[in-house]
Amino acid sequence: SVLILLIKTYLRLDHKAYGFSAPKDQQVVTAVEYQEAILACKTPKKTVSSRLEWKKLGRSVSFVYYQQTLQGKKLEMIDFNIRIKNVTRSDAGKYRCEVSAPSEQGQNLEEDTVTLEVLVAPAVPSCEVPSSALSGTVVELRCQDKEGNPAPEYTWFKDGIRLLENPRLGSQSTNSSYTMNTKTGTLQFNTVSKLDTGEYSCEARNSVGYRRCPGKRMQVDDLNISGIIAAVVVVALVISVCGLGVCYAQRKGYFSSKKSNSSSKATTMSENVSIFKPVILALWEAETGGSRGQEMATILANTVKPRLY
Fold first, then answer.
1. What is the CA radius of gyration of the chain?
2. Contact, 120 vs 208, CB < 8 A?
3. Alpha helices of the chain — where are they, by DSSP H?
4. Domain ranges of the chain
5. pLDDT in tens, 160-189
6. Cys-Cys crosslink for 297: which of 98, 201, 232, 282, Cβ 3.0 to 4.6 Å?
7. With contact defined as beta carbons under 8 Å apart, do 89 and 118 qualify?
8. β-strand 216-221 against 132-134: which pairing, if any?
9. What does CATH list as the number for 2-119?
10. With 0-12 CB in 10 A as exposed, 13-18 as middle and 19+ as buried, what is 204?
11. Residue 78 DSSP SS3
């Protein structure tokens, strides 16, 4: 019929831009995410009585078209071919069409494999920019996107102006000591200077689209040598004053007086014990009835007067 002829003519077209592609002589179909793709079954022998099956290959084989029924709402059959509407990255993979038809030798089976590749625009890249840095040091800025397919290339901007991949081609007023890797997204300053102070942003771009991260400011300051020297001098003075104070205290005998006081207290206690010891012994013997104890107690009572503190 006229409708079938129009459909076959439509399938012969090579749709390459921003929609889908089903090249007649190629087994790889590329489609932009959220658009559509047509998977063509190119087995040479297809008849009205042929039996058709479409399968998606992977860890496990799943049916896409089986027993004249499509296994998905966004799928549509056009003759022996499948049209996928609103393609997503989960649709990417290998598909196989199998056509079987009766013949004189029995059941004849033919198959064709098609690879669907889904192109995805980059997401907003993740940018790492230090908020501050010291001049003369090595500083690295990082930019990365994990969504884009094919893998995007990266470009850095300073204050909204694109940085050259080769800084030596720029003006003399800019820092020419940085290295930009457009594949990995790194921007490294070998010796960062105050001229590098500014707002930095990164753009990820591939054949489908591009996205840029919000700008982040990096402040570069000179190393304050005078401040460091002043701090070292103050610390040295504090240590010196503490040392002089310890020496002065030792000369004045503050530490030795404490030691002598403690030793004198120990001597006094031992004297008291030596004085009261015979008194206690004498009283104990007197209590037990010993004549010698009574005599000793009388003598000590008349002669020994213990010191009171």
1. 48
2. yes
3. 2-12, 225-251, 254-287, 291-303
4. 2-119, 126-221, 254-303
5. 999 998 777 655 445 568 999 999 999 999
6. 282
7. yes
8. parallel
9. 2.60.40.10
10. buried
11. strand
Q: Do domains 2-119 and 126-221 have the same CATH topology?
A: yes
Q: What would the two tokens of residue 35 be? A: 């658009």
**Measuring CA to CA, how many Å separate 40 from each of 14, 178, 225?**
12, 50, 72
Alpha-carbon gap, residue 206 to 119, rounded angstroms: 9
Report strand pairing: 81-84 vs 106-119: unpaired
Nearest to 212 by CA among 121, 302, 140: 121
Provide the CATH number for the domain formed by 126-221 in this structure: 2.60.40.10
- Comparing C-alpha atoms, which of 37, 114, 17, 1 is closest to residue 9? 1
Residue 213 pLDDT: 97
Tokens 């002043």, residue located? 230
Q: CB–CB of 211/124 below 8 Å? A: yes
Separation between Cα atoms, residue 9 and residue 117, nearest integer Å: 24
Dist. CA 165–CA 145, nearest whole Å: 19
CB 216 within 8 A of CB 159: no
pLDDT category, 120, cuts 50, 70, 90? very high
The C-alpha angle 250, 256, 258, rounded to 5 degrees, equals: 120
pLDDT at 266 over 50: no
